[in-house]
Amino acid sequence: MNKNEVNDFLCQFDFSPLEELDPSLNQGYCTRYRKEVPFEIRVEESNNIPPEIGSMENITVKLFVLGEELNAIRVKMELTCESDLFFHFTQTVDQRTFENMQNKQKLMIDFSEYLQVLIKMFNSCIREPKSYLAVFTLKLNGKAQLDFIKNMEYKFIELLTCEFIQSSEDAIRENIMYRYTVVKSKNAIMSKRLRDVSLLIKSKNPSLLLQLQKTASRQMELAMGKNSNKIMFNSKWV
């Protein structure tokens, strides 16, 4: 079962009680967006030298709103990574901080449009990864910068820049505990469903069950081999 098939299977179950435990919802925030987006990750090596082309990584992007969506008090953006649990960066924007962004970048949008612009940007990076780039630069001071860039073939145009801070140790710890709980709960559901299906197949066709178990075992070995070769982010960003 590949990742998409697992996600389709899990969509049959109601995980809203688990989602409500997300520590990012503290202080009254509501989730408005959650997707994996391809990022180019760059690491700044010197204040005077631009970082070289980085590596591609799928980053989980979550957008939260405090207040009504069209009249938000604050918009919070949270970035995490499945291959590095300690990768956790946050941007929180209110009317005042957005005005600073607006003046600095000459933005032609208002704060009330910021959330929808972010959603549009991320969706474009997912649908058209060669035309819309999300470049995330890890800086020496522990901060980070996300640049949305459009590839016009003959030149690159910077559309929007978002400044991030690395989340606190407490926030990272809470997030890891939450993600562990979610994965454990989903695995328990998958395991129970697998046992039920196995018992049903065993009662109808024992030889088919044996064949399925052998196939699953081979697929697991291949998956573990691929994962062992994957390069993970350096945990120095903790």
Key words describing this protein structure:
238 residues; alpha+beta; Dna Repair Protein Xrcc4, Chain: A, domain 1; 6 helices; disordered C terminus
Tell me briefly what this model is.
By secondary structure, this protein is of the alpha+beta class. It contains six helices and seven strands.
Describe it:
With 238 residues, the chain is an alpha+beta fold. The protein has a domain at 22-168: Dna Repair Protein Xrcc4, Chain: A, domain 1 (Beta Complex), CATH 2.170.210.20. Helices cover 40% and strands 32% of the residues. It is built from six helices and seven strands, in the order ααββββααβββαα. It has helices at residues 3-10, 16-19, 95-105, 114-127, 169-204, 206-228, and strands at residues 30-43, 55-68, 71-81, 84-94, 132-138, 143-151, 156-166. The chain has a seven-stranded mixed beta barrel. A hairpin with a 4-residue loop joins strand 6 and strand 7 (156-166). Helix 5 (169-204) runs antiparallel to helix 6.
Estimated structural class:
alpha+beta
Largest sheet: 7 strands, mixed, barrel
- Would you count the extended β strands for me? 7
- In angstroms, what separates the terminal alpha carbons? 33 Å
CATH topology of the domain at 22-168: Dna Repair Protein Xrcc4, Chain: A, domain 1
Helix content: 40-55%
Write down the CATH class of the domain at 22-168: Mainly Beta
Give average pLDDT, whole number. Answer: 83
The rounded Rg comes to: 21 Å
Unreliable runs = 231-238
Please work out how many helical segments DSSP would assign. Answer: 6
CATH architecture of the domain at 22-168: Beta Complex
Strand coverage percent: 25-35%
Strand order of the largest sheet: 1-2-3-4-7-6-5
Kindly report the name of the CATH homologous superfamily of the domain at 22-168: Spindle assembly abnormal protein 6, N-terminal domain
From the spread of the alpha carbons, the general shape counts as: globular
Give the ordered list of helices and strands: HHEEEEHHEEEHH
Domain Spindle assembly abnormal protein 6 N-terminal: 33-164
Organism: Plasmodium ovale (malaria parasite P. ovale)
InterPro entries: SAS-6_N, SAS-6_N_sf
Pfam families: SAS-6_N
